[in-house]
Structures are given as C-alpha cells and as structure tokens.
Specification:
The chain crosses the membrane at residues 186-204. Residues 80-101 are annotated as: Disordered. Residues 1-20 form the signal peptide. It is a single chain. With 207 residues, the protein is of the alpha+beta class. It has two domains: 24-82, Roll (SH3 type barrels); 117-206, no CATH class. It contains six helices and six strands; from the N terminus they run H-E-E-E-E-E-E-H-H-H-H-H. It has helices spanning 2-21, 103-117, 121-139, 141-147, 161-164, 167-206; strands at 26-30, 35-43, 47-51, 59-62, 66-70, 76-78.
Length: 207
C-alpha cells in the first residue's frame, strides 16, 4: 500500500512539474474577431503552422485569415495585408492600444469585444417580466422601447476607455451592443409570453 501511495505521489509531482513547465500560449487573432491559442511554429506568406495547447499535432491556417499574432512574450506581429507598415523603430504598444490597426480591423476588434463584454441581462428580464404581467400585447411595449434607442455609454462595459475613444472601434462596439440588447430583449419577451400563455391555459383547465 505504501508503495502504491508513493507511486501516485511521484506521478502527481511529475504531472504538476510538466504543467508548470508548459510555456504560455501564443494567440492568433483572426480577421473575423475569433482568437485561437497555440504555439506558433512557422509563419509564411501563405500559411501559419501552430500547435494547439495540449496536442502533439501541427495545424495550419491561411495567413490571409489572421491579422495579427500575439506572442506569449508580449510582442505581436501584424500579418494582414491591409495593415500599414510602421516606418522606423517604435515603442511596443500597450495592451489597449489600437496603433497600427486599419479602420476595418478596429471595427472587427470592436465587434469582438462587444460580443465578449456586453451581456445586457437586464433587457432580457425586463422584457420577460413585462410580457408575463401584461400579456403579449402590453408586454410588447418593453422590448420595443428598449431596442428603439442606442445603448448608453455608461452601460457599454467596454474593456478599455482607450479603445472606446476611437471612432471606428466605438461605432462597431455600439452596433454590436445594440444587436445583443435587441436579441436579449426579444428573447425575454418570448419567454414571458410563453409563461403567460401557460398560466392562462392552466387557469382555464382548473375551472
């Protein structure tokens, strides 16, 4: 029994050391806003070879589908052909900097950040409660009012005020936030309406 316990302890120790020795992953930021972690092995004009975390196989992505690589050491490399070349040496940009990004790429980043950071749970529950209390007709007012106006700045929940100060990024972020709030509001209305109909049906069946 002692031998078994000692073997298990040694195995756990080796696994923990192996996990601790694993390097931080690089991140491939795609033109559609998605992020793919992995160890970048090679970059060419046509493809990027990388190894996903915890997997031994090597995968490839088209270079045109990636507009930047954030390496684990904090540096980044621009790959998208629309990115302008930076003349002369420059200081490395901060994590919230948009320096070097084209307008299209700033919009893409704004859409991605809005999908990740803006949730609008209150719109869902307000619309659901209105439909549950007022029925489908009166409950329709709540989501209609909610979606008629842009999201206030105080509720955007942007990850960085520096990014939000950029017009291209801000416009894309606000548009995506408004779409998210619209979907949540009408989703809540649908849930509230379904619950209202269920309660009405149960009330008639009990009579």
């Amino acid at each position: 029994m002692r031998l078994i316990l000692l073997s298990i302890a040694l195995l756990c120790s080796q696994l923990s050391r192996g996990q601790a020795a694993q390097p931080a992953a690089d991140v491939l930021l795609l033109v559609n806003g998605d992020e793919i972690p992995g160890q970048v092995l090679a970059v060419s004009s046509s493809s990027i070879s990388y190894r996903p975390p915890g997997r031994p196989d090597t995968l490839r992505l088209a270079t045109d589908a990636v507009f930047l690589i954030r390496f684990a050491n904090g540096t980044r490399e621009v790959l998208h052909p629309q990115w302008p070349a930076q003349p002369g040496p420059t200081a490395p940009p901060g994590p919230d900097s948009l320096a070097g990004l084209s307008s299209a790429q700033r919009r893409t980043l704004g859409l991605r950040d809005a999908r990740r950071c803006y949730t609008s749970r209150s719109s869902f529950w307000i619309s659901a409660g209105a439909a549950l209390q007022g029925g489908p007709l009166l409950g329709f007012i709540a989501p209609a009012v909610i979606t008629a106006h842009p999201v206030p700045d105080a509720r955007l929940r942007a990850p960085s005020p520096t990014r939000l100060a950029d017009p291209s990024y801000r416009t894309a972020y606000q548009q995506q936030a408004r779409h998210t709030r619209r979907d949540r509001a009408w989703g809540g209305y649908a849930l509230g309406t379904a619950a209202w109909l269920l309660l009405i049906s149960l009330a008639f069946n009990t009579q």
